[in-house]
TrEMBL record:
Gene name in the database record: mdh
Residues of the active site: 187 (proton acceptor)
Record-stated family: Belongs to the LDH/MDH superfamily. MDH type 2 family.
Reaction(s) catalysed (UniProt annotation): (S)-malate + NAD(+) = oxaloacetate + NADH + H(+)
The protein's name: Malate dehydrogenase
Annotated TM spans: none
EC number in record: 1.1.1.37
Domain of life: Bacteria
Domain Lactate/malate dehydrogenase C-terminal: 156-321
UniProt binding sites for substrate: 92, 98, 131, 162
Amino acid sequence: MKDPVRIAITGAAGQISYSLAFRIASGDMLGKDQPVILQLLEITPAMEALNGVVMELNDCAFPLVQDIVATDDANVAFKDADFALLVGARPRGPGMERKDLLEANAAIFSVQGKALNDNASRDVKVLVVGNPANTNALIASCNAPDLDPKQFTAMTRLDHNRALTQLAQKTGKHVTDVESMIIWGNHSATQYPDIAHCKVAGKPAAELVERDWYENTFIPDVQQRGAAIIKARGASSAASAASSAIDHMRDWALGTNGQIVSMAIPSDGSYGVEPGIIYSYPVTCEGGKYEIVQGLALDDFSKQKMKATEDELREERAAVEHLLG
Ligand code: NAX
């Protein structure tokens, strides 16, 4: 039996975690042979609800679960954590401007970044799901000077998976036939879902779909999919977000076998993007590390879309510059 790994989840009484915690506990993230210790963080008023989640986790009698910690103290939740999934965030309230939202979340993620710095495993892998995810990840990273910025990532895998399905359905193929999908930039409506390098069942996607569909249906549909879910379900994406968080962490930890996936990671200047911002890139993962796929040719359309989403991330960073530690 392997030694257990410690997995911290924040916002653990929320709707994404209600799927996420159970799937991690059943071995979907790290495999059916990897025991886990769940370290669940909530705010104090939600501790009663979190206790209910813990009761249900216990009632599942998951063979892989070695222990469950439920706490409202980030230092306890992140103690020796090997993986940290930062899901909890402050939602936009009535009358709240975008800047207020960024600041409210900056306050949360600066505290959590410091708690990770002081308590987590030195190899911790951090995934920020809570919105605005890219900039929240930047804030957490800036407040964790003893950890490598590369340990801080944000989630665009849900956008990636959404794009895979849209293209597979349009071409009458299966998602597993689609290769090299890319989401560039921010997890927001400015993200750029790029099919220029995609192949579907071995054929270039750009030859299988009309340009008009790509520009005027596919791109906006992927960008606006979150809003469409809210309209239909009356609540935001939860099980699909949890599933994508599991995909992101599994691939980062266990590798992608050469397949390209999208992860929001600290820019190193690749493709002319401002270094430091957390920007979604095409990556491959191996041996617990991710690497940006280099050398992809970009046309003017792509360059302009990539710049627009980069500009938004620069603006978000400027709004919280004073909190970057
Ligand atoms: P919920 O409101 O159901 O749950 C969030 C939970 O976080 C609540 O239980 C709350 O008490 C807790 N929380 C708030 N502040 C906290 C703190 N400082 N420490 C610990 N816990 C805290 O939201 P849910 O639907 O689960 O969504 C969570 C976040 O994911 C939201 O910010 C949402 O916008 C974001 N999403 C991100 C996606 C992505 O692709 N990156 C997609 C799905 C989702 O919209």
